[in-house]
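Weekly modeling sync, notes
Attendees: S.R. (lead), two postdocs, one rotation student

Agenda item 3: backlog of single-chain predictions. S.R. asked that every request posted to the team notebook include the full sequence so nobody has to chase files. The rotation student volunteered to paste the first one in as an example of the format we agreed on. Action items at the bottom.

Example entry:
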Amino acid sequence: MNRFEKYHKAVNFLEGIPNLPLKGDYMVDKNHADIYIKRMRYFLNLIGNPDKGMKFIHIAGTGGKGTVTNMVHEILFVSGKKVGLFTSPHVMTSIEKIKVDDKYISPDEFSNIVDYLKPFIDKAYMKGPYGMPSYFEIFLAIALIYFKRRKCEWIVLEVGLGGRYDATNVIEKPIITAITNIDFDHTELLGKTLEKIAFDKAGIIKHGSIFFTTEQRQSLLKIFNEICNEKRVSMHRLPNQDNYREYNKRLATAITEQLGISSEYITKGIRNSRLMCRFEVVHNKPIVILDGAHNRSKMKATIDSLNRIKYKKLFLIIGIADNKDHISVLKQIIPKADYIFFTRFQYKLRKCAHPDELYTKSKKYMKKGAKVKIFLDAERALLQACKKAEQNDLILATGSFYMAGELRRCWFSEEKILENREAGFFKL
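Predicted structure, as returned to the notebook:
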């Protein structure tokens, strides 16, 4: 048997969950969205409520929440705390979503927990009042069981989608809640206005917690303030910063200062914090950057970072999920590109926009003389860009974590991540 065969079987089992036919209102009716929390609580009750007895930091937002959760985890870890991290999506392999003390869950422990959960999943599916838990909900259960077994004191939770009805909102008494910037994403579920999106994300604010936000717009702050007053929660708005990176650092600093962590550990934790495919440099001369920006705010942050780098020509490799707002992403990055390669990711659980469609939507934003090619294989697009680019050029692959993660395999193998339980990063 291949060393990681059991792990891959466990992953295949979880990824096969969505192919079952829907039952009743299962993830269908937005008007009954509270069923998601009820279903998660029912499932956690079945498995012994592993969420009880741990202290939670709960972080939502449109952009930056993954970066902030990782920074907070690193700060707590270097300060000597026993800390777990749950985040999403994964970039290369599923264990990335679950971390304790700066190490991903081991493939063996992951597969063992999946095996342990299978009878409970069957019971929920066949006899539960809310149907079978979703792929994301099961992952959260795996994480909570693992954190409990590892005797974690602190848990840093990144919201999956929205906040109010996200599975992570099943936790009852977070110590700290935080919301990064608000922007348009998942509008079909969260609402068509920023105010509706902010209201949904503010659903993580609970009585007894302390709330932080980097949001600056008064109309959204009013919503947060009203909910904080209702829940009797103290609200802390962080001052305006020059760029998204500074917002994220300041938020992680404020959260951990509230917990009494010293500046020495905060500085060290932020310095140690790195994430795959968040403007990740994987090659030099030419510079190759992998980035998962897939909405307006994330792409703005990407361009902020891009503007800080000196390069001659920009080679852009871009693929975006079908359900995203393509125009809001494309109109920001396309004008900067000298060469554009429209492509796609191959991840089976998400539909990718057709490269031809992206090309059509991009035409009016292209700079004069920009050269365009279409590839159905993102790796071929990367090889073509590397062949054409000179040493002082820059290659940026962006638009989706799934595509960026697939291209990352050209430098880092999944097997190495499973062996070492860490991401591995390129050093300039």
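Discussion: group reviewed the output briefly. The mean pLDDT is 92.
Action items: rotation student to repeat for the remaining queue; S.R. to check formatting next week.
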